[in-house]
Amino acid sequence: MPLYLYIKNGIADNDKRQYHKQHNLNKNIITKISIKLGLQFTEEKEDNENTFAPIDVLDYIYAVLHSPAYREKYKEFLKIDFPRVPYPQNAAQFWRYVSFGAQLRRLHLMENIELLDDISVFPIADGNEVDSMKRIDDRVFINDTQYFDNVPLEAWNFYIGGYQPAQKWLKDRKGKILNFDDIEHYRKIIHVLMQTDTIMTQIDEI
After folding, report:
1. Order of strands across the sheet with 139-141?
2. What global pTM score does this model have?
3. How many CA atoms lie within 13 A of 50 on its CB side?
């Protein structure tokens, strides 16, 4: 379900662009949110605290879906149906969720990730082949001698949907040799999972 649709203009259209962009949100729902929050809806994000845009709606939804309280309350329904997102109670709550959702969205897109020097470091130079996978203390071994050090248990056990990314990524590469980019990407995964866990705990705080 894309946030925007790119619609091709008709031949007789005076607009010479091949496509024009429009949001893919339900207009009735947007109107209700606009009235409830006292904010004006705009097609694109503006630097104006009295307006909200499609990306803000997306970020609000993204934060709601990562709320531990929401997940716990509706966990049985979420197993069998599409998630139902509650309307924001007021503008303050809306913008608070938008802020958390934007942080999570950028994290999950791996935008501008700055790795910490002491998190999931890969200190032993060797063949880099993923032969086996086990976690001992804070070390995740990929073979008998090589490991990612300082991998927090929260990141190692973190679930997204029905799988654990920190574990599945390595399982999918068994028998393969990790290059520099692979190692850096796995370190980013650990970073993202740690930050996601931290942000999720903050969403429900008052």
Report:
1. 134-136, 139-141, 147-148
2. 0.86
3. 1
β-strand pairing of 40-41 with 134-136: unpaired
pLDDT in tens, 10-47: 554 555 567 778 899 999 999 999 999 999 999 999 99
Nearest C-alpha neighbor of 60 from the set 101, 103, 15, 1: 101
User: In angstroms, rounded to a whole number, what is the distance separating the alpha carbons of residues 171 and 31?
Assistant: 46
Among candidates 129, 190, 183, 184, which has minimal Cα distance to 158? 190
* Alpha-carbon Rg for the chain in angstroms: 21
Cα distance between residue 148 and residue 160, in whole Å: 21
Which residue matches tokens 């791996």?
Answer: 110
* Helix, strand, coil percent values for the chain (each to nearest 5): 40, 15, 45
- Contacts of residue 37, defined as CB under 8 A and 6 or more positions apart, other chains included, come to 52, 88, 90, 91, 94
User: Nearest CA to 69 among 86, 49, 57?
Assistant: 86
Name the amino acid, one letter, at 120: S
Structure tokens at 196: 């996601």
